[in-house]
């Protein structure tokens, strides 16, 4: 295997490191040694993260209610519990609900019930993940028509056993679908896999409101591992797709504030910087021989340990460079800096074909 051959060469080059080769940089020794520790590091309760910038300013959550309902005009409302958010549209004939996050849970029923007496007639799944639709069964009593992309149906149907909290959709589509209930219109479209296969773009044209879940986090850096996304090229491209919609406000599915086009553009720049920083790290941004030397010496023949050391240093190099430029601009950019860089390094290697020392020579 090319990997083993490469590390065999590196092992010969660094076999003297354990004896105190003076050319090894201390910073790489620390990272490499840490990469083979078995004991976990300090918990996050012991880490002081950077102060949050004003970009994260959010709506106030009434502690008694535990949720906030915002009127976006024209019968469109959004609901947040501070961590998750979704929206619903009140028409002359019934209510269209988009997603049912279980963290909001029964509070979503209260939010809708305190806004209208009309029943929920349609429920749209943005994608299959339980943290966004795991409360769908709460609407079983009103028997709504459940709508989702065909990929979402396929993935939910493949679960064994099937999850009763996420009823299977009744209506599916491949490219575009328009939900019309009374005087409300919600346009659904699919532009290929991004966060997950089947993750939808939604747009209320009359109110100029867009919804896209788990891609942009208004005012904040993305959640861990780029929002646990499955296909980073599609997830990255989703920023540009979202910008083609003529919206004033968008609902992001997370954080306690709405988004604007400026939020999309800002995160797009962050992702581009992360991409470039990680590509630079892979393509010679650190001394590979020095970085993995202690791990090679301590784990003869263990290619997994050696490659973990390589990935850790490449990731940390990228994370440090990117974070230094974005602290104070996006909230919590340092919290998941390593995890987001790690996901980007992996995407560069296996999806973008940026292989650095592992490319065909």
TrEMBL record:
Residues 1-20 form the signal peptide. Keywords: Signal. InterPro entries: Metallo-B-lactamas, NDM-1-like, RibonucZ/Hydroxyglut_hydro. SUPFAM superfamilies: Metallo-hydrolase/oxidoreductase. Residues 84-254 form the Metallo-beta-lactamase domain. It comes from the Eukaryota. Pfam families: Lactamase_B. PANTHER family: ACYL-COENZYME A THIOESTERASE MBLAC2 (PTHR42951:SF4), METALLO-BETA-LACTAMASE DOMAIN-CONTAINING (PTHR42951). This is Beta-lactamase-like protein. It comes from Mycena maculata. The lineage of its organism: Eukaryota, Fungi, Dikarya, Basidiomycota, Agaricomycotina.
């Amino acid at each position: 295997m090319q990997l083993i051959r490469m590390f065999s060469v590196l092992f010969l080059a660094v076999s003297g490191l354990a004896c105190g080769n003076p050319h090894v940089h201390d910073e790489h020794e620390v990272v490499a040694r840490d990469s083979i520790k078995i004991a976990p590091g300090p918990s996050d309760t012991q880490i002081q993260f950077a102060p949050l910038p004003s970009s994260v300013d959010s709506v106030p959550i009434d502690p008694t209610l535990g949720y906030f309902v915002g009127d976006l005009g024209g019968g469109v409302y959004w609901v947040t519990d501070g961590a998750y958010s979704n929206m619903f549209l009140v028409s002359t004939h019934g209510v269209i609900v988009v997603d049912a996050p279980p963290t909001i849970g029964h509070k979503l029923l209260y939010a809708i019930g305190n806004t209208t007496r009309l029943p929920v007639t349609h429920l749209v799944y943005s994608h299959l993940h339980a943290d966004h639709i795991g409360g769908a069964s709460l609407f079983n009593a009103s028997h709504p028509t459940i709508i989702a992309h065909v990929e979402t149906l396929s993935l939910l149907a493949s679960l064994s056993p099937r999850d009763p909290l996420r009823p299977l959709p009744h209506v599916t589509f491949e490219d575009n679908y328009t939900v019309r209930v009374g005087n409300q219109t919600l346009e659904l479209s699919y532009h290929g896999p991004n966060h997950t296969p089947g993750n939808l773009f939604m747009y209320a044209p009359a109110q100029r409101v867009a919804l896209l879940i788990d891609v942009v986090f208004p005012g904040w850096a993305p959640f861990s591992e780029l929002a646990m996304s499955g296909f980073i090229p599609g997830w990255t491209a989703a920023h540009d797709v979202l910008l083609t919609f003529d919206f004033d406000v968008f609902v992001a599915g997370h954080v306690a504030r709405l988004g604007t086009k400026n939020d999309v553009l800002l995160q797009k720049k962050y992702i581009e910087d992360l991409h470039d920083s990680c590509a630079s790290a892979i393509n010679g941004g650190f001394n590979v021989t020095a970085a993995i030397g202690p791990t090679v010496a301590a784990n003869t023949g263990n290619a997994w340990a050696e490659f973990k050391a390589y990935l850790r240093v490449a990731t940390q190099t990228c994370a440090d460079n990117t974070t230094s430029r974005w602290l104070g601009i996006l909230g919590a950019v340092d919290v998941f800096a390593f995890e987001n860089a790690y996901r980007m390094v992996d995407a560069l290697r296996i999806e973008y074909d940026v292989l650095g020392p592992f490319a065909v020579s």
